[in-house]
Amino acid sequence: MQVNIAESWKHILQPEFEKAYFQNLVQFVKEEYTNFTCYPKGSDIFAAFDYCAFGDVKVVIIGQDPYHGVGQANGLCFSVHDGISHPPSLINIFKEIETDLGIPYPESGDLSRWAKQGVLLLNATLTVRAHEAGSHQKKGWEQFTDAVIASISEQKEDVVFLLWGGYAKKKGAKIDKKKHHVLTSGHPSPLSANRGYWFGNKHFSQTNEFLTHKNLSDINW
Question: What architecture is the 7-214 domain classified under in CATH?
Fold first, then answer.
């Protein structure tokens, strides 16, 4: 079965595409997109892989679901298209960058600028029905994204994984912590952030310190 995913990932993930669970997932997603409004648009489902080639991955940020509001999801976790109001989690991410690195709060919420520098912005579930959070969970996406994380862990080294919140930390079970640098904190959503589990984590400066230490170019956040 052919899946429209970037060439650099195709040979790595091809074994997944052949599995029964993935073929069932494709059928489910096709039916959902035919019968309901779903996000992101079809051509953006694998955007995280289009913007960030396998060989370029230096940092992985794991989200949960795509945004389910009109025009928000663009296939990169926590990211929105230009001109779209920043959701609360993204606001808190930018606030932390502002205090951590002294970078002014940006106008654009489109994080493709990070992805092009080697940040894989991976949601655990890559699709969602409009206005129904979690509606495409437990249909096979989680198994697929576990395989993505496992492939990065096995085939690369010195990748920084940013695991925000309990859900992302569970996804991190696939990571070989001897080979990679794992940073964890609370989720940037207001519920977690306002309880003191997000702000001050300094993940952005710590990521760049690690990359510099490994003689890799840092990320312009």
Answer: 3-Layer(aba) Sandwich (3.40)
